[in-house]
Amino acid sequence: MTRVDDVVTVRGERELFDRTAHLFGSATDIACAANTLHTWASSRPGPGLPPARDVQGRRARKIYLPSVLLDEASAEHLRQLRELGAEIRISEREINETIILDGRLAILAAEVTPDGRTFTVLSRPDLVNGISSLFEAAWRSSTDISAFEARFAELRRNTPQLLDLLLSGCTDETAARTMGVGLRTYRRYVAELMAALGATSRFQAGARAKEAGLL
Question: What does the UniProt keyword field contain (predicted)?
Answer without folding.
Answer: DNA-binding
